[in-house]
Structure formats: C-alpha cells, structure tokens
Amino acid sequence: MTERPGAPPLRPFGLRLHHDGRWSHEGEPIRNRGLREHFDRSVRYLPDERKFVVTLRHFRAEIEVEEAAFFVRTFDAPSGRLTLSDRSEETLEPATLVLSPFDGALLCRTKRDLAPDGLLARFTQSAHAELMQAVEEGEVGLALRIGGSLHPIPRAVSSDQRHARERAEPAEGEDPPPTSRAGRDRAYVERRAHRSAAGRSLAVRSACRVSMRVERNVDAASW
C-alpha cells in the first residue's frame, strides 16, 4: 500500500482484533456487524512498516492484532485452496499448521509474498470442519489428503488433538466416541466446535453497547 501525499503517519487508533475474530475499540466491543465485516475485509499488512491497518473510505488506522490478522473461511480439499477473510485465496501449506495457545484452534502461515515467514491465519469452525473431513490415518499419524496426495500433519498438532480427545469425556446426551482413530478425531472436533459456538452465543448476548466513538471517528477522519 503506497502512502498518500500528505497522509499523517500511522499511529494506534485503539482498534484491536482479538484472537477469536472479535473487534474492539478502546476496550469496548464493536457490535455493528457491517462495520466488523468491513474491517475483516480491509485488513492489510504493510511490509515496510511491519504494521497491520484497516481502511474505510479515506480513513486508515493501525490496528493491534492479538494473534492472527486473517481468518480461513473455507478449505477446499481437492485443491488445497483456502479462502481468507480479506477475500484472497491461498494454497494451504500443511507443514505450517499449529495450534493457537489461546484455545487450540488451528492456525497456518499465509501471504509469504508480504513476509518471508508468512502471516498467521486462523481457521474458523466451518473451515476447521472442512479440513477434518480430509484427515486420514497415515503411516506416521494423521495426514491430510489434498488432491491425490497425503500430507502429514505436524506431530504437535496431531498429538495435542489426540491427547485432548482422549481426556475429553462425552457430555450427557452425546453418542459414545467412534472406535476408529479418524472417527474419534472428527467427533472431538465437532464436540469442541459445538461448545465454542454456545459460549460465543452467550458472550454476544451479554456484550456491551458498541462504542459510538468508532463510528464518529470514522465519519470524521480524512486528510
């Protein structure tokens, strides 16, 4: 992104992108869905400044990213293609899969054209479920079938999910765990996705009013 003539230097604006995709401004949750979706689409990384920004009309602001600036919306197993929250597409590098230290969600590296080590992207629940449909038991553990090839999942990811699954007891009313390893992996992910969705729903219902300062500043900011 090139600098506009006369544009003020980038500085923090109080915008924060949380690890689970929530947005806040100066500690207040942003509840306006349209504004959140626009911010999701407009996140950009500036390699020279090594900063993330969002834009809205002539307004541009530096943002604080808690974990990943981009989110994987869909995963297509036959091609290995990912669709990201900024509407770009990438090919998954299975070797870059890691677990979030916050809650164990899957992360991967993307956008190596902007950063040599890549930028983190976090799998949404739906994309995670799509990826798990492509998981098979390989010779040395779990592997992803992309196209006609099997790609090993990093041992730390495979082991953590397997150990967590073995520790987890089915909740009341849940079916007994499947007997196959691949089936148990999928069942564990489905249970965790269901519980996470319930928790997020409760958080949304109890969220505070959106900070009106965000929209006032966005409407007023220009250069």
What's a quick, concise take on this entry?
The chain is of the alpha+beta class and 223 residues long. It has helices spanning 33-42, 125-132, 155-167, 181-205, 212-220; strands at residues 12-17, 23-25, 28-29, 44-46, 51-56, 59-65, 70-76, 81-84, 89-91, 98-99, 106-110, 119-123, 135-138, 141-146, 149-152. A six-stranded mixed beta sheet has the order 3-2-1-6-5-4. The protein has a six-stranded mixed beta sheet with strand order 9-8-7-12-11-10.
Description:
- The chain has 223 residues and is an alpha+beta fold.
- It has a domain at 12-67 and 210-218: duf1285 like fold, CATH 3.10.540.
- 29% of the residues lie in helices and 30% in strands.
- It is built from 5 helices and 15 strands.
- It has a 6-stranded mixed sheet with strand order 3-2-1-6-5-4. Strands 9-8-7-12-11-10 form a 6-stranded mixed sheet.
- A hairpin with a 2-residue loop joins strand 5 and strand 6 (59-65).
- The longest helix has 25 residues, at 181-205.
